[in-house]
Amino acid sequence: MDYVNLPDSSVRMHANKGNQKPDVPDPLTKLFRLVGVGFGLLCILQAALNVSLRLTVFKIDTQPSTTETVCRNETDNQRPLIGQYIQLGWVYFHTSLYYISSTKKTWQESRDFCQQQGADLVIINTKEEQDFTRQFYRLTWLGLRNITKRRRWTWVDGTTLTKSYWGPGEPNGFEGKTENCVEIRFFDLENSWNDIPCEEQNFWLCEKEATL
């Protein structure tokens, strides 16, 4: 019988192990692992950033600046409630609120009414405002009068008249009367003012500064 020299079983086992390839991670698996680690780091950074921002915003909100406090107080305490005035019959035009009366009073009584509303008789500052006051088609007191012997016309805020819109031939002291107050009379004309005695009865127009 021929005998064949066969390697020992332990030798064969080691040989087989020596021939097996070592477990090498798949490149795709490596990529997934790297992406997962990177995403985890981004989440941690994002969470830290959110916490930092929340703390900063909280600090700003709980410690308002002096300027912010002043503006807030002005808004709460000084700014007119425009919507409420409009509901009471006032009209908003440019930067002011206006109230046209439905009854008649003397110039001084009319002014007293306006001041009780935190306003005063209207002062004409621009051509647009002059055109606005003519549209009511009523004999209406203006906040303009002559309180000096030199016929120096002065607005109710103390400023001297510079730009005027007197009607033809006005002011004239008609029939020798003392006409120291001013009304809107000539509605269809840009120059609509007329001087009359302050004791006459007229409608009136109040003006109150407003801010939106």
TrEMBL record:
Fetch the CDD domains from UniProt.
Answer: CLECT_DC-SIGN_like
InterPro entries according to UniProt: C-type_lectin-like, C-type_lectin-like/link_sf, C-type_lectin/snaclec_domain, C-type_lectin_CS, CD209-like_CTLD, CTDL_fold
Protein's organism: Characodon lateralis
Q: Which PANTHER family match?
A: MANNOSE, PHOSPHOLIPASE, LECTIN RECEPTOR RELATED
Domain C-type lectin span(s) in chain numbering:
93-207
Keywords recorded for this protein, A-Z: Disulfide bond, Lectin, Membrane, Transmembrane, Transmembrane helix
- Cite the PROSITE patterns for this sequence: C_TYPE_LECTIN_1, C_TYPE_LECTIN_2
Claim: Secreted is one of the keywords in the record: no
Membrane spanning residue stretches: 31-49
Mind telling me what this protein is named? C-type lectin domain-containing protein
The segments labelled Disordered in the record are 1-22
Pfam families per record? Lectin_C
Output the SUPFAM superfamilies linked to this UniProt entry. C-type lectin-like
